[in-house]
Amino acid sequence: MQTFRNAWWLKLKFPETYLQVVPKAGDFHGHAHLMDGVVQIPSNFGHIIEPCLLRMGVVGFTKKMDMKQTSTRYRWLMIILAAGLQWLRKTFTEEELKQPHEILNLCKHNLAVYNFVGCMYYFLVPVWLYKKSMQVHDVEALNFMWRFSLRVYGNTNKTNYKSGCVQNTKVLYDSEPNARAIMNEHRTYTETGKPCTGAAIDYMNEQVRQPQWCLLL
Predict the structure, then answer these.
(1) pLDDT at res. 209
(2) Closest by CA position to 151, among listed 165, 138, 139
(3) What is the number of other CB atoms lying within 10 angstroms of the CB of residue 213?
(4) Tens digits of per-residue pLDDT, 28-52?
(5) 60 Cβ contact list (under 8 Å, min separation 6)
(6) Residue spans of alpha helices (H) in 22-110
(7) Model-level pTM?
């Protein structure tokens, strides 16, 4: 993010010099830091994520961010989400599940359940949506996730990503139409060409291959 932010300011201050440059933050790193923002929120980690990890005997998942743990973090967060949704489906109807604020109102006096439901709907589902959007090249959803991430970072000390979200959102929405079309076209790539196997273009620079199970979530 720091490299992008520096390039963004250079573009703003010296537009003629950097006329042919359009800096943009990558979605692989955006997704990783969104997950970190979700983990860093005290009510999420201390009340929900950490107890679940301890109960399942999970190792290799720490509160402090480590990019090498990105796939591990995503896997266990999705397991927690899947288990929570399975429990909700046994308790509420499909129509009730479409109204999370009503469910939260019903359980507002049970703090543990209230936090868990809120974490699933407003934090873990967006983490899943971001990943899915990269896999299927959903540019509109990818753009939205940068705006949504700003709300997550607002509750953390990820200062660089707070301002970075605003800067990248301006690039995504306010760039010249032809530049925006090029960015949208080359937002993701796929190693196999198979459906739902897309990854963010900045992932090509990473040294760690994406595990096969990660492509299925």
Answers:
(1) 55
(2) 165
(3) 11
(4) 999 999 999 999 998 899 999 999 9
(5) 69, 72
(6) 27-40, 42-44, 50-56, 70-91, 94-97, 100-106
(7) 0.89
Amino acid at 108: K
- Please tell me the chain's helix, strand, coil percentages from 3-state DSSP, rounded to the nearest 5: 70, 5, 25
The number of beta carbons lying within 10 Å of the beta carbon of residue 21 is 12
The DSSP call for residue 175 is S
Q: Using an 8 Å Cβ cutoff, are 153 and 161 in contact?
A: yes
What is the spatial distance between Cα 158 and Cα 154, in angstroms, rounded to a whole number? Answer: 8
Q: Extract the tokens encoding 140.
A: 């509109």
CA 194 to chain centre: 23
Nearest to 144 by CA among 172, 182, 184, 123: 172
